Q: What sequence folds into this?
């Protein structure tokens, strides 16, 4: 079985401008969504209380909302979570009231509600409370983590290849991250710490693609003389396209399994991963290589002619 | 060519064996158990107690699967949950005869069924996080300002008695913010004298209270009184906070013991926070209740002056030096501001009956507090004294009792409305009041059913994903696909073994990280297989193709795993809670991926193809040639 029956190097770089225009447009669209709608932050970042309640039968969301609103919250967020029997209630931070008291009061009010059938058998499955200060700290930590990853990757790639490649890779992959955030802003999906973890994992994974291509570029520079940079890049992308698509396909199969079977808690996490994996192919392959080309990479960047020994690869164990 | 030296083969075999060994404990399941721990200071957990427990069980005809004395608790393993509940009741009754205060706590628990020979090698099942086990997680923050103010109030009182003992007269001590201000009367004629008094006071205080800075200050506008300002030194402040935090941790420990949970986690986090985690707690509401009483306790005299009486009915203002409180259902009472003793000076509290067989609470105080109480009670016989619980700045009077006699370090609070009330008060006093008020800044409560559900979901998604990848790999890469799948399985085995060995916390994102690791790890094998295909396509002989394929792919595998590792490390350093669980698994997964993709898979390939003298072709799927 061979899916990739390619006879000749596909001239990707000829279309570099078009491909990058498309990615620039999607990038701008994502930024627009982020600016206008903003992200739907989870309580881990904003502070607040989340209650997850399971009813013995289909829950009446409206009744629950009325009950909670009657306790003095002006716009409680009440929605289904997973199955139609599970309800998630999100309450903002209330000054002066401890979270335990808050959640207990709300739960008891719901249980006591005589008009909702089965309310007295409602089960409190999960409570999560984050004070505003902790929320701020988690947000800062998240931002710092992102910064750390970006800097780390740039430094590593600059050492392993060359600074032009490092810049190209980071531009391409940050573009990925913004697109994921854009999707979350556009559809109003909840952005939690777990989703941030997914985004960072995608960043690390996405850079892999660029690394594979850069590696091939370096090898092609070494083995095939007389090819222009553009042709070298075309050759590198063409030879690795099979691997890129198969790997992404396999990873996506695993993520799809999580999306379907993982339950509501892992849903947004898997969603972020899926978007990252799909757009990752595009950005890492086309954008990274094209940007590197425009930054003017040449043979000498990767292969230092002064060294007697070739820029060798580490020993195979 | 394509042969591993013996030591490499052995290395792989050993690694896989160790992996299997340390993964095994995860499959033994858990047994319901009963855990007995001591809560009274005098109670002892030892073989004598174990004997009592065993006798009680045999008398009730309950057979158990094992009893072990583990540190300061006894754990008894039982067959099923019904037996577990019966055993709990039987043991509780046997250890605590009715009417007496319980000295032991008997709680339900789940114990891993790992056989002893595995546990002796430190092979334990993975440590499940709260979102997989169910339980309660609190992050408590000390109110640093309140803690410091408390200390300063106490010091102000001490300074007052110290000056009185030495006969140094002053015109008043008051607290303004975090400064204690002393005034010395100077009314023109007596200036020099006031100076002398002030200097004497300054020296005395500096000597007796080394943790403070004592500075003279000029008189305020509109008054001629000389002033002395006493403030905490910065290092003393730090020490006060540190002590308060440590004291609070001790108190929380006591409270958690009352709940009888297994493996509670109470740790200091940072300079002013405490993490409390109670895994596997089934009655989460009660846990929150007991831990949530982040209150401080004080005993104060009731102000019986006529002004105070007027204030009670609302006819007049609350007199200076006193405060208004409510008892029970709102009956007001005016108490003096100065506290006689505080909760941390209690050494014991028991519900008991006084000489008239009425419910009472017997209290033991520390020696110093006992002396203070003796003095105060001597001067205030037949006057009422109240015990107040302060929570979030508001005080709730627990009880008002009349001082019948000169009290000492041991005394009784009588006139409790019921035995239940005296048990509750004793519990509250005994569980300890906190040295500094704390506030819950983060809370996570997960019901046990959700925990089990999370595990099942995580497990299924990993399983199905693995099956899908395996199916594809075998279909696309034939025999090499089988090798890659075996390597992936080895990866999973080693990862779980590593997590079990390190007892790293596994959370739901952690399970997601396992799935993601497997999904990403297949990349290495795809790289290798594609390379080998390419070499074969270019006309290399099979054995050479294998060598070149692995060689060329190695650098790329290394690079791509390092970048993923950078992301994992960032999350490890900056993450917290479940996200940290994700990061730990992610990082460990990268390490096992590199090992299994390169060494294990090469080992298998070498075993299969290495020994063949003439290899006609590799079973790696279709090698499509452009001009074929």
A:
């Amino acid at each position: 079985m061979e899916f990739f029956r390619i006879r000749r190097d596909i001239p990707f770089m000829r279309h570099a401008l078009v491909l990058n225009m498309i990615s620039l447009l999607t990038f701008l669209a994502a930024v627009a969504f982020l600016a206008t709608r903003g992200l739907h932050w989870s309580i881990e970042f904003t502070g607040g209380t989340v209650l997850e309640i399971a009813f013995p039968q289909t829950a009446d969301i409206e009744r629950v909302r009325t009950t909670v609103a009657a306790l003095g919250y002006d716009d409680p967020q009440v929605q289904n979570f997973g199955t139609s029997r599970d309800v998630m209630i999100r309450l903002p931070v209330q000054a002066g009231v401890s979270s335990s008291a808050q959640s207990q009061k709300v739960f008891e009010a719901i249980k006591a509600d005589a008009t909702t059938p089965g309310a007295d058998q409602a089960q409190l499955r999960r409570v999560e409370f984050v004070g505003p200060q902790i929320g701020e700290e988690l947000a800062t930590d998240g931002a710092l983590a992102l910064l750390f990853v970006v800097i780390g990757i740039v430094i590593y790639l600059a050492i392993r290849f060359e600074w032009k490649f490092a810049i190209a890779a980071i531009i391409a992959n940050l573009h990925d991250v913004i697109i994921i955030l854009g999707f979350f802003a556009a559809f109003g999906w909840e952005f939690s710490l777990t989703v941030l973890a997914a985004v960072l994992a995608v960043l690390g994974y996405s850079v892999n693609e660029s690394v594979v291509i850069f590696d091939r570029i370096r090898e092609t520079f070494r083995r095939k003389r007389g090819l222009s940079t553009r042709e070298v890049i075309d050759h590198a992308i063409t030879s690795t396209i099979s691997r890129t698509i198969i790997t992404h396909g396999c990873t996506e199969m695993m993520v799809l399994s999580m999306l379907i079977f993982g339950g509501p808690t892992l849903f947004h996490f898997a969603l972020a991963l899926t978007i990252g994996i799909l757009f990752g192919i595009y950005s890492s392959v086309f954008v990274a290589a094209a940007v590197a080309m425009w930054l003017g990479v040449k043979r000498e960047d990767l292969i230092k002619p002064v060294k007697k020994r070739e820029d060798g690869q580490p020993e195979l164990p | 060519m394509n042969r591993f030296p013996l030591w490499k083969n052995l290395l792989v075999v050993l690694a896989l064996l160790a992996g299997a060994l340390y993964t095994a404990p995860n499959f033994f399941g858990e047994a319901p158990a009963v855990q007995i721990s001591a809560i009274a200071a005098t109670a002892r957990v030892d073989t004598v107690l174990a004997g009592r427990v065993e006798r009680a069980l045999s008398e009730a005809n309950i057979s158990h699967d094992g009893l072990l004395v583990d540190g300061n608790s006894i754990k008894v393993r039982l067959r099923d949950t019904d037996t577990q509940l019966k055993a709990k009741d039987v043991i509780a009754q046997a250890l605590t005869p009715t009417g007496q205060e319980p000295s032991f706590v008997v709680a339900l628990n789940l114990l891993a069924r790992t056989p002893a020979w595995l546990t002796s090698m430190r092979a334990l099942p993975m440590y499940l996080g709260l979102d997989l086990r169910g339980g309660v997680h609190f992050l408590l923050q000390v109110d640093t300002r309140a803690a410091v103010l408390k200390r300063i109030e106490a010091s102000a009182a001490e300074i007052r008695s110290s000056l009185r003992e030495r006969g140094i007269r002053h015109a008043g001590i008051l607290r303004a913010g975090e400064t204690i201000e002393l005034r010395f009367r100077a009314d023109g004629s007596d200036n020099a004298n006031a100076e002398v008094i002030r200097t004497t006071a300054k020296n005395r205080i500096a000597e007796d209270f080394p943790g403070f800075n004592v500075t003279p200050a000029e008189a305020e506008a509109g008054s001629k009184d000389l002033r002395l300002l006493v403030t905490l030194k910065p290092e003393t402040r730090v020490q006060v906070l540190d002590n308060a935090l440590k004291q609070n941790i001790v108190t929380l420990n006591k409270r958690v013991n009352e709940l009888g949970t297994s493996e509670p986690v109470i740790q200091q986090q940072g300079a002013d926070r405490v993490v409390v985690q109670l895994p596997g707690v089934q009655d989460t509401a009660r846990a929150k209740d007991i831990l949530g009483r982040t209150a401080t306790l004080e005993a104060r005299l009731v102000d019986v002056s006529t002004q105070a009486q007027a204030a009670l009915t609302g006819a007049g203002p609350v007199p200076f030096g006193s405060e208004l409180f409510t008892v029970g259902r709102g009956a007001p009472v005016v108490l003096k501001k100065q506290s006689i003793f505080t909760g941390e000076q209690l050494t014991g509290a028991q519900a008991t009956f006084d000489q008239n067989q009425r419910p009472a609470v017997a209290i033991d105080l520390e020696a110093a507090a006992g002396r203070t109480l003796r003095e105060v009670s001597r001067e205030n016989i037949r006057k009422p004294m109240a015990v107040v619980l302060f929570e979030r700045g508001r005080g709730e009077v627990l009880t008002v009792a009349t001082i019948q006699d000169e009290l000492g370090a041991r005394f009784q609070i009588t006139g409790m409305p019921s035995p239940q009330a005296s048990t509750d008060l004793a519990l509250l006093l005994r569980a300890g009041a906190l040295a500094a008020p704390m506030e819950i800044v983060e809370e996570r409560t997960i019901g046990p059913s959700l925990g089990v559900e999370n595990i099942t979901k995580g497990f299924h998604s990993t399983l199905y994903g693995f099956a899908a990848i395996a199916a594809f790999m075998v279909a696309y890469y034939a025999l090499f696909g089988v090798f890659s799948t075996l390597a992936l399985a080895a990866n999973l085995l080693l990862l779980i073994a590593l997590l079990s060995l390190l007892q790293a916390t596994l959370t739901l994102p952690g399970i997601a990280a396992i799935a993601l690791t497997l999904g990403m790890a297949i990349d290495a094998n795809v790289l290798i297989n594609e390379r080998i295909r390419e070499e074969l396509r270019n006309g290399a002989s099979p054995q050479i193709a294998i060598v070149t394929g692995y060689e060329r792919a190695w650098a790329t595998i290394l690079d791509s795993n390092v970048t993923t590792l950078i992301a994992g490390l960032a999350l490890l350093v900056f993450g917290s809670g479940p996200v940290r669980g994700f990061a730990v698994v992610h990082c460990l997964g990268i390490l096992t991926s590199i090992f299994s993709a390169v060494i294990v898979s090469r080992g298998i390939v070498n075993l299969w193809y290495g020994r063949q003298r003439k290899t006609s072709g590799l079973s790696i799927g279709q090698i499509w040639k452009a001009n074929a």
About this structure: Chain A has a mean pLDDT of 82. DSSP finds ten helices and six strands in chain A. The radius of gyration of chain A is 25 Å.
